[in-house]
Amino acid sequence: MSAAPPRSTAAPQVDASPHLPAPAAPGPSRLPGHVVLLAPAVAAPLPDALARWTAERFARAAHYAAADAVLADALRTRPEAIVVDARASGASEAAITARRVKADSFTGIVPVVAVVEPTGEAAAAAFAAGADEVLTVDTPAWETQARLEALLRRSARDVGVHPTTRLPGTPAIEAELTRRLNAGEQFAACYADLDHFKEFNDRYGYNEGDRVIRLVARLLHDVVKGVSGEAGFVGHIGGDDFLFIVPLADAAPVCELIVETFELFTPYQYSEADRRAGYYFGKDRRGQLHRVPLMSLSIGVATTERRRYTAATQISRLASEMKTYAKAQPGSLFAVDRRTDAQAAAGAARSGDEG
User: Fold this and answer.
1) Which residues have CB under 8 Å from 225's CB, separation 6+?
2) Spelled out in words, what is the top-level CATH class assigned to the domain 170-354?
3) What is the pLDDT of residue 8?
4) Where are the domain boundaries for CATH 3.40.50.2300 in the chain?
5) Would you state the pLDDT for residue 34?
6) How many angstroms separate the CA atoms of 113 and 98, rounded?
7) What's the CATH number for 31-160?
8) pTM of the entire structure?
9) What's the pLDDT tens digit per position in 186-199?
10) Between the CA of residue 215 and those of 168, 256, 265, 301, what are the distances in Å?
11) Please, are residues 248 and 303 in contact by the beta-carbon 8 Å criterion?
12) Boundaries of CATH 3.30.70.270 in the chain?
């Protein structure tokens, strides 16, 4: 292992809907979750293309006639999608359902599809109530299919994006690592973590803490994209933890520039008194005062140069291990794992013998 210093010194009741065709045989495109449908007790059949989509795309469907039942289902299970029939007599209940679903923080991310009368006023009312997509009986089958598939893609993307930084979250990070491993690419996975961020958050408040997180996200994104272009990827694991991926040859210059830039702007996130002193006093978990240094940045780097991985979790776990090693050193720096698989196995064996 080597450490490189910065260049600077410093389950619901399911009813078979009378308006749905028999479920299609399970296939690779079918989602394991379910779709919830709201329709009045007496209603026209759903458009054929929409009915086929619900049957072919989801493992099961739950059919209800009232907003209370839809919301109860959504709160218990958070379905993949909710379809509301907002035609004629069902318009009012559909609008109530959409508003209630979108008002709850747990169910608000569930995409809502509204079936409306073929008028502009009906479509506008559905969107105003919170619907994410609006369809009519006149919407062509190909367009219905395209809109609904795009809706699911948007929903998956929105769920996977971190709300503070708008960077891809853990599922996207794992997917990108898996893609590169399967493609046989030579790359570096870099786990970045702020040191002494919790103390900063406690002293200056969560608003300032979020602002720093956004600054770090922008720094990582701009440097990674500036050096590696489209070959670079930046994700936000959560809190003050990030993981970025770059081509193997870009790892050192990217990490050096990130660390150097971080050291330049970080002191200015503090009050003048704290910045001049280079530290402040904070309380530990036992309530004892101790000297807290200014924030630093630790980056752990795992590469495909000398190691072989069969799963994304292996390389991300190694990058996290190297990050822990970096955090044990003072100041901002990055640490690169330079061991081979054989050396790592021998080290683990020695540790076991010593234990």
Assistant:
1) 232, 234
2) alpha beta
3) 36
4) 31-160
5) 87
6) 9
7) 3.40.50.2300
8) 0.72
9) 999 999 999 999 99
10) 16, 17, 9, 21
11) yes
12) 170-354
Other Cβ atoms less than 10 A from the Cβ of 253: the count is: 13
- Please state, in angstroms and rounded to a whole number, the distance separating the CA atoms of residues 235 and 174: 10
Q: Which amino acid is at 159?
A: V
Q: How far is CA 96 from CA 99, 115, 117, in A?
A: 5, 14, 17
Q: Which pLDDT value is given to residue 351? A: 57
The amino acid occupying position 111 is P
**125 φ/ψ sector (left φ>0, alpha ψ -120 to 50, else beta):** alpha
Cα–Cα dist 161/168, whole Å: 4
Instruction: Yes or no: say if 94 and 129 are a contact pair by the CB < 8 Å rule.
Output: yes
Measuring CA to CA, which residue among 252, 250, 257 is closest to residue 233?
A: 250
Positions in the chain short of pLDDT 50: 1-28, 42
- 80 near 54, Cβ under 8 Å? no
